[in-house]
Amino acid sequence: MTTATDGSTCFKQRTEAILSELDATGQLKHLQTIEGAMGPSITLRGYGEVDCFCSNNYLGLANHPDVVTAGIEGLQRYGAGTASVRFICGTFEPHERLESTIAEMLGVEASYTFVSCWTASEALFPTLCDPGDIIISDALNHACIIDGMRLATVIKKGVQKAVYRHSDMTDLRRVLEEARASEAVTGVMWVVTDGVFSMEGDLGNLPEIRALCDEFGAMLVVDDSHGTGVMGETGRGTHEYWGMKGSDIDLFTGTLGKALGGGAGGYIAGSRAAIDLIVQRGRPTLFSNALPVTVACSATKAIEILMSEPERVAKLRSNVAAARAGIRDVGFEVLESPTAICPIIVGETATAISMSNRLLEAGVFAIGFGYPVVPEGEARIRVQISAAHESQHIHRLVEALRVLKSES
Ligand SMILES: Cc1ncc(COP(=O)(O)O)c(C=O)c1O
What we know:
Largest sheet: 7 strands, mixed
CATH class of the largest domain: Alpha Beta
Bound molecules: pyridoxal-5'-phosphate
CATH architecture of the largest domain: 3-Layer(aba) Sandwich
CATH superfamily of the largest domain: Type I PLP-dependent aspartate aminotransferase-like (Major domain)
């Protein structure tokens, strides 16, 4: 009993210390409460109606009537779920349909879904890598890739990992050369990159990475969570933007929690053999339940809308161009790229937080990110554009930024 008491006292003290430190340094996060559906404008508790520029609802499908109806009909027909993992109780038809729809959208052989892209990433490398393999990652890859790599090295002892400087192809070549020369690397070399980097809003240079992978015989994995539904003429993703086919990428990971309906869920997509191995050996596939069937139905409908209404992607593109031009016109520096993520660099963390608060008071919801999420001195307001925004939303964003600029 003494130990248990000591343990709880110790835990309480250290937890309180961490929380107070976060509070004292202005890093404590306060969750906002949304009273209604996600859309270009939302109702935030305590603030009323505000224009939303911090959601990944890139195509405006989160509250599309057909997406909502598909989820309701799925719930009515299939109930909440199988109350089991898929290899024991089986797969609902909507999961099969969703997985073939994802494969069709990306132009690859097969896909398998998970409750999140985070889980998909934790399934991918630990399942597909063997001792003697090396995973080579862009320095700014998403946290789920980093943790998936770490997990692979723990679950399969002898899997190596290495990092190259962000989007630096000379450095990627150096790492590949070192890997080729290493005695510890006897198996597959994997290169993994985000398609669209979530904090910078810039693109992975997929053609050059592909060329290096071909030269070194490496496999290419792309997490296109912010690119699918957004990039390329028809929104197929960052590979389409670069004029590549889905089959030019060995494996995709992606989320259903952003452009593709915005509920939740993730996937791995690629060759039939890779997906079959994930089904047989993936720990999240063997020991964890499926994506809720309602979400599977909604996500399939969202992808069908994406594929049948390319005008949504075109509208998103013109909204992005208008927002980027407006932000620059006001005098703010926005990191240049064609993506829907527009980071406005403001310098200090405290500046980003106070600007974000001032924007919210002016009815514009855009979040400030500071150290340690981004490098010190590069704190930013991250503005995210949606096809659901109309010109008046973008006008209000730009005017609110203009007021902030005049005060600075
Ligand atoms: C690049 C990237 N990958 C993966 C994820 C995780 O997606 P999910 O919410 O489906 O786990 C995110 C979410 O922020 C992301 O930005």
